Amino acid sequence: MKLLLVEDNAELAHWIVNLLRRENFAIDCVSDGESADRVLAAQCYDVVLLDIRLPRMDGKEVLARLRRRGDKVPVLMLTAHDSTDDKVDCFSAGADDYVVKPFDARELVARIKALIRRQSGAMSACLVCGDLEYLPDTREFRHKGTPLILRPREHTILETLMLRQGKTVSKVALMESMFTLDEEPSADAIDIYIHRLRKHLCMSSAQITTLRGLGYILRSNDTA
């Protein structure tokens, strides 16, 4: 899962980035509205955390431009005021949710996960692919009831495939889900992580299939 944080308060941004990285999210961070608009026009994200008051372009204008481009990425607005006018402004601009500063870490993470579930259609308590389970609330994988221990980037790739199971996911899409703006994307790295995931899933009926020239697909090989 890859998020974009748009926040001009450096101390708060640092805290949020560290918090979400501990939750196994890949996260990019920019500090002004113009930079956010430019990045959002070029990159794909699972959720955007957008401060409503920003230098160089306010959050509502960033959001308005995003929606005019037809981008339906879930947007969580960060606002310093809990007034009815601010709430109305957030939703009128096309926001999916909002959180009032200062906010609790658990609330922020819970709201992000709720937006991801809503966007992916994963409204059930568990997603299943063969004998592999994914729990959206905790973002945990289980194989036959036993937690599947994965490294952060392995988790990111398997999560991306699980949320789109049965559909082809291109290598480019996997790279976008895993690498941040500060990192150099590597197609070879995707091959390495897919190889590792196949080892983790060697005893599972959920399998990752390569569709040459197209990407990868997660599906069950159960014949029942």
Automatic annotation (TrEMBL):
| OmpR/PhoB-type domain location | 124-220
* Presence of the UniProt keyword Transcription regulation in the record: yes
Q: Note the PROSITE patterns from the entry.
A: OMPR_PHOB, RESPONSE_REGULATORY
Response regulatory domain residues are 2-116
Stored CDD domains = REC_OmpR_PmrA-like (cd17624), trans_reg_C (cd00383)
SUPFAM superfamilies referenced in this protein's UniProt entry, alphabetically: CheY-like (SSF52172)
Point out residues bearing the modification 4-aspartylphosphate: D51
Keyword terms, alphabetized: DNA-binding, Phosphoprotein, Transcription, Transcription regulation
> SMART domains given for it?
REC (SM00448), Trans_reg_C (SM00862)
Q: Kindly give the Pfam families that the UniProt entry links to this protein.
A: Response_reg, Trans_reg_C
Name listed for the protein in its UniProt record: Transcriptional regulatory protein tctD
User: Taxonomic lineage per UniProt?
Assistant: Bacteria, Pseudomonadati, Pseudomonadota, Betaproteobacteria, Burkholderiales
